[in-house]
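pls read this protein.

:::
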Amino acid sequence: MNTRRNRSLAAVAAVISLGAAVAVTATGASAAAAGCQVSYTVASQWQGGFGATVAVTNLGDPLTGWTLRWSFGAGQTITQAWNATVTQSGAAVTAVNASYNGALGTGGSTSFGFNGSWTGSNPLPSAFTLNGVACTGSAVPTPTPVTPAPTGSAAVKTVRVFWLKPTDVAFDQRYPDGIAAVMREAQRYYKQEIGKTFTLNGTVVEVVNGEHDRNWYITTNCSGSDHYWCVVQNMQQELMRRFGISSQDSRWLCVGEISAEETNQSGGGASPGWVVLSGHDADGAAGLNGAMNRWYGGMVHELGHGFGLPDSTSTDGTPMSASFYSYPDTHFSQAQKNAILAGPYGSFLS
């Protein structure tokens, strides 16, 4: 598998076929109660910096672990944290319990703190979610996911796109909308460059409720401490199994993005028939991780691998090299155009 990090993905060659595609997970009957209350306090503030304490109270059924999420509204940045593992992507902040404070019984509370930087203003966050549930100060029933019966598959000879949402990630419309926008821009670019382009499925982004939480995708089926490929491998294997897709399927060229990754150890890549990307690409498509041209160029690059192209051997001005970072000022060579059209998915272009 080709990627922006020079690694191999041996497990991607595995073929799992169950024959029928399965519809996206739906919502069914109520089960356990969930709810939470959050107190966010700026304990101290100075020019350009501040310290804050966040207290979390579980109002629902007991938890064995928790993930709190919120977004800053004025460009604040977290620089140091304690009593939780805190990561930030753009405005979006994720705090995960430490090993010693993950268990929260009904009515149980814990707290963590952090230091941050600010410019201009430092408004308080307006909304929090705990394990994907909005913290409104009251308990509500948690819907139980149910998987409906198979309902058929996407149109053949299309690029089929999935956003896999782990169980502890709240649905956010920015992700399917943003990923769809990236795919449409890549579609436009291929038409510009080759004179032909691919067709997207009628449902451009199929939102899939994952079977596991983020940590499972990050740490399961790993080789030692190297988690670089775990996230995207686990996503791909789940999508292949649940939707009856093979590793190089003649019906679809597939793109999978998952909202999970381990900082600095999770990535993605592509090979003929598949593009598999982790959290920072999903965040980028949603507009939460820098300039959009970088994510447009990245998708054009990975789709090039999906259509059968290798990486360029040098930074040569084509999107199959580091020149994709200069998108849209990058262009396929004539040899690359010919190879795409003659490749395993060239017949998908019209």
